[in-house]
Amino acid sequence: MSGSKAAEPVLRVKDIVAGYGEMTILNGTTFDVRPGTITTVIGPNGAGKSTVFKTIFGMLKARSGSVTFKGQDITNAPPRRLLTLGLCYVPQGRNIFPELSVRHNLELGGVSAGAGVDVPARVEALMERFPMLRKKSGQQASTLSGGEQKLLEIARSLLLDPQLMLVDEPSIGLSPLMVQEVFGILKDLRQKGVSVLMIEQNARSALEISDDGLVLELGRTRIQDDAARLLADPRVGQLFLGGVVGDAA
Amino acid sequence: MANMINLLMAGLATGAIYALVAIGFTLLWQTSQTINFAQGEFVMLPAFFVLAALNLKAPLWLALLIGLGASLLVLGALFKRAVVDPMLRHGVLPLAICTMALSIFLKEGVKESYSAEASPFPSFVPGGNVSLLGAQISIQSVSIFVFALVVVFALQAFLMRTSTGRQMQATAQNPSVARLLGIPVERMILYTFLINAGLVALASFLVSPVYLAKFSSGETLGLAAFIAAIVGGFNQIRGAIAGGLLLGVVDNFAAAYVSTQYRGAVPLFLLIAVILFRPQGLFGRAEERTV
Questions:
Q1: Which residues cross the membrane (chain B) (predicted)?
Q2: Which residues of B touch A (CB under 8 A)?
Q3: Are strands A195-199 and A164-168 parallel, antiparallel or unpaired?
Q4: I need a surface site. Which of A131, B144, B172, B253 has the fewest CB within 10 A?
Q5: Is residue B223 one of the residues assigned to a domain?
Q6: What's the number of domains chain B is made of?
Q7: Within its chain, how far is the Cα of A209 from the centroid?
Q8: Does the CB of A111 have a partner CB in chain B at under 8 Å?
Q9: Is A237 on the interface with B (CB under 8 A)?
Q10: Is A103 an interface residue toward B (CB < 8 Å)?
């Protein structure tokens, strides 16, 4: 597993308040993500899980509070800056450009690349890593299966070599086999030192591959703890993991 | 036979102009949900920019350049900033209604400030006829067709083969994800409006020598291009091309073989047939929308 708890967090979210219009969703959300770990966010519907991600990634304005990435203040920074700094975000649902080819979809992940980045070489490297993408590189992205589209999105988000990936419900709508593949990629990333912050309705499987877990409720952090301890916590088990703790998964 | 070839060529020339204007329709719709009912007037206006410049004794090439520049500025940038941006916040329909008002404003504005009469417009392509398979084909028709086609293919190549073009497509297909990847979405949308302004200006310079420059000349053209866009499938450029050409040819043949009086009705019949049997258009894809 990962380094000591004392390590400087890669992401620090502090007292964030944000919402839509008059509605406040996040009420002082606070948590850390340790470097080289997978952290899973769980919580009931409407707890503000996706809203946290949108706020971190500059899609929603934080009214107060701060977000720090590797010691730099990134509160309300635009996506382009975040991408160059080493953050990436894979939102929920389908996020491809359906009528562009797989290759062109991948290339667009490099739009925000700095001057020194060789985007074509990075595209090649990703196709090396995900042979399916090379095989289908000329096809319209809409012809890919749901799981393949998710892989494409994840691959695209890796184009700029991120150090932190925000990924929202990666397993939704995927076959069990594909879920294993996606989780495998996330574990791989951790091995390479990339941190992952994930929202997952499939909370048990997600916590099983995670280092840390985070329970969000009404826009506040209720519990932040070891993923293993969360899995064993009877309150969490009852509320979010669907049944008695210790059930065969 | 000779007559058929003549009609076909004239139809293709008209159709190519419809296609230019229809492509603009689909581009605006794709990137900013704008249904521009003033599109016909957008074709009418650039000719008057050119005429105004000619009246100030500018040579034709300069007048055309000024006309193009003024179109990009007024029908591209200003249209987006002053009409689309503020109105789109209120929804697609208020914006559409606003463009109807704009169409009336432009028509009446030209009538009051320039002339209610049709004005001759100089052609920048040569006149005369060439002989082909026994038919006398107008060089002007051929030039219009070829010129429009070259522009359409250049536009397609720009959208498909350049990074900016693909960023524009990405913006049209999924704006929120485009934003996430750091694509400058606002700038891409502005480009679309500039391209539309360029297309209508070009259509204006091609069509005005044939049909003269008149304040009301956008009415039929706007409707025809709108129908062409729907027939082809509102969300596809190649649909707009096919729809435009088809409409131009059908229109010309109907005038010759059915009746000139029913000429205006034929595109509408085509429209009804397409909506009944293929509502997504010839090339379009069905769009899902929550209402």
A1: 6-28, 60-79, 91-110, 130-159, 189-211, 223-250, 262-281
A2: 163, 166-167, 169-170, 173-174, 176-183
A3: parallel
A4: A131
A5: no
A6: 1
A7: 14
A8: yes
A9: no
A10: no
What the block records as the tokens of A48 is: 């503000």
Tokens of A230: 């969360």
Q: How many angstroms separate the CA atoms of B21 and B43, rounded?
A: 8
Range(s) of the domain holding residue B31: 2-217
With respect to residue B169, please indicate whether it lies within any of the assigned structural domains.
yes
Distance, in angstroms, between B94 CA and closest chain A CA? 22
**Which H/E stretch holds residue B242?**
helix B237-253
CB-based contact A224:A212 (threshold 8 Å): yes
What token pair was written down for B253? Answer: 């043949």
Whose CA is closest to A110, among A120, A100, A102?
A: A120
ipTM of the complex: 0.86
User: What is the pTM assigned to this prediction?
Assistant: 0.87
Q: Output DSSP code: residue B213.
A: B
| A32's tokens | 């850390």
pLDDT tens for chain A, 249 residues: list them. 444 455 789 999 999 999 998 899 999 999 999 999 999 999 888 889 999 999 999 999 999 999 999 999 999 999 999 999 999 999 998 899 999 999 999 999 999 988 888 999 999 999 999 999 999 999 999 999 999 999 999 999 999 999 999 999 999 889 999 999 999 999 999 999 999 999 998 888 899 999 999 999 888 888 888 998 988 888 787 777 665 444 444
User: SS3 for A76?
Assistant: coil
